[in-house]
Amino acid sequence: MSALLLEAKGLNGWYGKSHILQGVDITIRDGELVALLGRNGAGKTTTMRALTGLLPRIEGSLVFDGRDILGRPTHEIARSGLSLVPEHRGIFGSLTVEENLNLAARSGARWSVANVFEMFPALAGRRKTPGGKLSGGEQQMLSIGRALVTGPKVLLLDEPTEGLAPVIVDRLVELMGELKALGLSMLLVEQSLDVCMAVADRLLIIDGGTIVWEGDGEALAAAADIRDRHLTLENA
Ligand code: ATP
To answer: Which domains does the chain have, with CATH numbers?
Structure first.
């Protein structure tokens, strides 16, 4: 079995007095794509934020690439190779595509700005366009590109397909497959069960701030009761 890259055990997380994460356990092995599913408000984004040092208070155990990262600052976690592509894309609207990428790029990263332009020819054609003027699909690609040029070991993708046209969703599914084939590990938060089935090695369901189910796509397809209990129609 390949090496363990990320291990969260008994992760608890709070926003002020609201105790949102109530003992989350997640492991990601080298080269694995793990999907995190759950209803609105189940705690998916909060989990991503907890893993990347963006929650005001967390407890439990969090080890990434052999290092204890619990309570470490976000920039340090990102530097160690755990890179978040946030739900609302987090790109700078007034900076051009190229500037957005150059700002994030780190020397020695596996993907350069030129690699990102090869991967996304549509972005290459718009390199001088401000981020805010891009379509939703292009913004998503820029956001992924920005994470790649930081040199991640694990990429955390928070609902990358949300609100995008089916043809763009297909391209993103293809891209996740390509990145996986290159050995990149990913944690994907995703509403569409179809997308999860297409790309994920393993699926986790979160409900009420706890992981309530774990298995592969085939097992979930067969588990109608689990889907009814913990997912919504949007996931179908
Ligand atoms: P969605 O699909 O709607 O994004 P999610 O599974 O990502 O759902 P989270 O955003 O993690 O859900 O929210 C989990 C819980 O935390 C919800 O009850 C939400 O109201 C609460 N929450 C989220 N952000 C904050 C915040 N900044 N302050 C206080 N409570 C928050």
So the answer is: 4-81+153-235 (3.40.50.300), 91-151 (no CATH)
